[in-house]
Amino acid sequence: IDYRGYGKSEGRSSEAGMYRDAEAAYNFFIKESGLDETALIVYGESLGGVAAIDLASRHPSAALIADSTFSSARDMARKILPIVPSFMISLRLDSVSKIGQVRAPKLFIHSPYDEIVPFRLAKKLYNAASDPKEFLKIDGDHNAGYSLDYQTYHDGIAAFLRKYGLINN
């Protein structure tokens, strides 16, 4: 989905708006598909991972996959704006405080070569998560790791989903 203010969606982006948009997409999918929410695999990449973690912390799901996602806006701000005190950052995007509420199996995917989201922030998020959880290390940059290291990415996700009985092949 495109959150308000992103892609082809109109409106102004905001943290609360992003969460509302993810909730609306979730509700639409559940209604239209007829699936039970516990059959849904929640996936989010980068900023979308923040929305996915928020959603999975409030709804049961079959699994959560957080791809190239960070721990919080304050942690990211320390990388991007190191001279600005963290208390001046109004955006929270606080996935690290929500991830412990996710009971579904969790897969975290990240590359140590990610030039946008530091690897350590993905590890911080992973470390804050409760079991069951797994970490898949891939190669490549932030926007192309999934294609530059396709085999590791594809096989890692498939193995995770197989392990929890979410796919058969």
Features of the shown structure:
single chain; 169 residues; alpha/beta; 4-stranded parallel beta sheet; 7 helices; 4 strands
Description:
This protein has 7 helices and 4 strands; from the N terminus they run αβαβααβαβαα. The protein has helices spanning 15-33, 47-58, 73-80, 95-98, 119-128, 145-148, 150-163; strands spanning 41-45, 63-67, 106-110, 133-137. Strands 1-2-3-4 form a 4-stranded parallel β-sheet, with helices on both faces. The protein is globular and about 50 Å long. The two termini are 27 Å apart.
Distance between the termini: 27 Å
Unreliable residue stretches: none
Please write the string of helix (H) and strand (E) elements: HEHEHHEHEHH
Query: What's the overall geometry?
Result: globular
Count the E strands: 4
Q: Into which percent range does the helicity of residues fall? A: 40-55%
Strand order of the largest sheet: 1-2-3-4
The profile of the biggest β sheet is: 4 strands, parallel
Strand composition percent:
5-15%
Averaged pLDDT: 91
How many DSSP helices?
7
Radius of gyration: 16 Å
What structural category do the secondary elements indicate?
Answer: alpha/beta
